[in-house]
Design a protein that fits this description.
Order of helices and strands: HHHHEEHHHHHHHHHHHH
Structural class: mainly alpha
Number of strands: 2
CATH topology: Farnesyl Diphosphate Synthase
Helix content: over 70%
Strand content: under 5%
Number of domains: 1
Number of helices: 16
CATH architecture: Orthogonal Bundle
Radius of gyration: 20 Å
Length: about 325
């Protein structure tokens, strides 16, 4: 079995190799933002999850490497377009693609990344390749659906907890789940096991995105890689804001609504004021309980997968790393 660190090294080496290939392609202005996007770092969670899943059934992980890279390229494409929609300036402590280059270049290069992902998947030699492409296509559409829900929620103050959880299932969790199921399918694992790994990924993804919400308001920018308070400034209907809108009364509710409706404000004042309301209502504890719930659900599902326990250890190690980011 490969360790998480070994797989991260393999993925990073392959990304560097693919980036060198991109440098030789024309028009250079199309591929330069692609190269920048995939080279500025990241934890490579999704490709590593795919390889860990594949490694549960096979040691020859090179067979799954093109799909792992495809998942990472597609993930970075979604981030690139997401940053444009959010007008985000920083990603992984570096300028976002549309700030480093320009918005039109970012849109077009993002489109190219989506199709490059399919190109890489087609490099795989597997009896289940059609199943993997069907899964990936379904996931790609769901991610777009999740992004649209996220945009729709910006205009509403009545977003429910269940609506929000469905949105992050689509926007974030399905790609983690797809990574795990695709790895199993490429290794020709049984459908039942592949589906359990998918459900494991859904619960892990929900926990991961909820923690992302928490870190966006209370994280360390150097560790988190994005500006702290960006969701607050954009009035994003995160789990924190939804639970605060439910719980706030009196002066807290009035102040919260005033800040949400304000069009002219000093950014740091708004971030500080809303974080103070979160703290007064103990919202950190509420969201942490939800994170723990989904993490424990994912662990329970993994226990049900009929594979030797020692083979699951690298996967459990990565899951713990994902959910122990500091704030």
């Amino acid at each position: 079995m490969y360790s998480v660190e070994e797989l991260q090294g393999i993925v990073n080496a392959e990304i560097k190799n693919r980036s060198e290939g991109l440098k030789k392609l024309n028009p250079a202005n199309l591929y330069r933002p692609v190269e920048y996007s995939i080279e500025i770092g990241g934890k490579r969670l999704r490709p590593v999850l795919l390889l860990l899943s594949y490694n549960l059934f096979s040691e020859d992980i090179k067979n799954a490497l093109p799909s792992a890279i495809a998942i990472e390229v597609f993930h970075n494409f979604t981030l690139l377009h997401d940053d444009i929609m959010d007008n985000a300036e920083v990603r992984r402590n570096q300028p976002t693609v549309h700030k480093k280059f320009d918005e039109n270049s970012a849109i077009l290069s993002g489109d190219a990344m989506a199709f490059l992902a399919y190109k890489f998947i087609l490099e795989n030699k597997s009896e289940r390749l059609v199943d993997v492409i069907e899964l990936f296509s379904k996931t790609a559409i769901e991610v777009c659906e999740g992004q649209q829900f996220d945009m729709d929620f910006e205009k509403r103050l009545d977003v429910s907890e269940s609506e929000y959880l469905e949105m992050i299932r689509l926007k974030t969790a399905v790609l983690l789940a797809c990574s795990l199921k695709a790895g199993a399918l490429l290794a020709n694992a049984g459908t039942e096991i592949a589906n359990k790994l998918y459900n494991f990924g859904i619960n892990l993804g929900l926990a991961f995105q909820l923690q992302d919400d928490l870190l966006d308001s209370f994280g360390d920018q150097k560790k988190f890689g994005k500006r702290i308070g960006g969701d607050i400034l954009a009035n994003k209907k995160t789990y924190l804001l939804i639970k605060t809108l439910e719980a706030a009364t009196g002066t807290d509710k009035t102040n919260l609504l005033n800040w949400i409706k304000k069009e002219n404000f000093i950014e740091e004042e708004k971030i500080s004021a809303i974080k103070n309301i979160y703290n007064q209502l103990n919202i950190i504890n509420i969201i942490q309980q939800k994170i723990d719930f989904y993490f424990h659900e994912s662990c329970k599902i993994l226990q049900e997968v009929s594979i030797e326990e020692n083979k699951k250890q690298p996967l459990l190690i990565l899951c713990n790393q994902m959910l122990k980011r500091n704030y």
